[in-house]
Amino acid sequence: MKRLGVFVIAALVIGMVSSAAIAGSVTSRWDVTLGGYSMMEFQWSNKNIGTQNAVADRDSNYATNFNDKYSATAWDMDVRLNMLMRGPEVWGAKSSAFVEWDFVGRATSGQNISYGDPGLRHAYATFDWPRTRLVMGQTWQPWGYQLPPFAVMAAAADNPGGFKGVRRPQISVQQKLTPVFTLIATIEQSNDPQKNLTDSLAQSDFNRGLYPETSLVLRYQSDACGRIGPAMLTAYASGVWGRYLRENGINAQAGNTASLNASPATLQTNLGYTNYVFQRFTDKTITEYLGQVGVFIPIIPEKAPDNKGGALGLATHLTYSQNGGFLSGFSTSDYNFGTAAAPDYRNPKAVELTAQLGYWYTHKWSTFLDYNYARKLWSKRTLNAQANGTQDMMSQMAANLVYDPSPAFRMIWQMSYVHDSYAKNLYPVLKNHGTAWIGRFEAQYFF
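The structure corresponding to this sequence follows.
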């Protein structure tokens, strides 16, 4: 019996040693830091809307709108995971890379993506010289992401990410002109980035542009007025410009388009008849642009790095755009008043404003007020051509209470009010505006 016990123990030891010898290990050539957070949110709304949504459907009038009649409660979860890699020197610059995913799932470009599926947010490399930074990869568009991290708001829908652009593949050069002034020049992907991320073969009119979108930013930053956390006095002006081709497929004779995939014999036969023609295309070059100015002011700076009590800050920016489409928070796109054969495009404008005020009662307790406004500046002709019930204005106000008991944990109680208006109301069974109240509780854990 002793011999059996010794044999079993020896076998286990040999097995463990052998497993350790053949087991792989998770390593990296360079220093890697993992990070991210998990979030749980409970939401109540007096309208039938989903989580991460702050659109007020039209109010009932003579008829009842289902989304207006019924309220909704919902739970939402979000997990983000990121990796920061610090690499070797490249061209005399310190190199690093950042990759981040979330796991909320998305349904874009007709794809059915389940809740909890991973989605790529950031994937870029940076190269830092003493006065210059080069960024290559997908991250926030720099023209709209210049204000320091300041306001803490539950739900992106209550603080529209579109007001600061979207995440796009880009090449960006940041050059420090003086200790307080920085110039940022960027070329970036000019189409809907989500289409490329979900379907590598997806194409759109934006892909058919002759060159990438181009943006410039001039930023001023100084700690002369003190700081609130990392946020210091900041002011900037930015702009982005691009052109794309809007194409129209037309037939010289309707109903008899010859297939481009037909056999040579079939094509030869078909071409002998006047009632068979090939499809042909017309196109129109469309210009999109956006300008933005913004400022952050630490009205009352923090007393010390670990004492924000009594601090007060204000952040605001104003945006003006044409054919904002994938650029701004409030989508506008060109409108064809003509036909496919003879297009007559008009380019609508939009104006957007956001303002945030934050106050810290103590280092751990704070409150934030957030206001967002956007309106499409349609001409009367463009307005009359829109479908009935087309949204033309949105307004959002939110107030919250934030508790940070530790650097790893945060709780947010928030109430939002949304007021949207709709440009046309030919059949007033519903009102031409909608309002909604949304309450949220959010718990976040950072790791």
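The chain has five helices and 18 strands.
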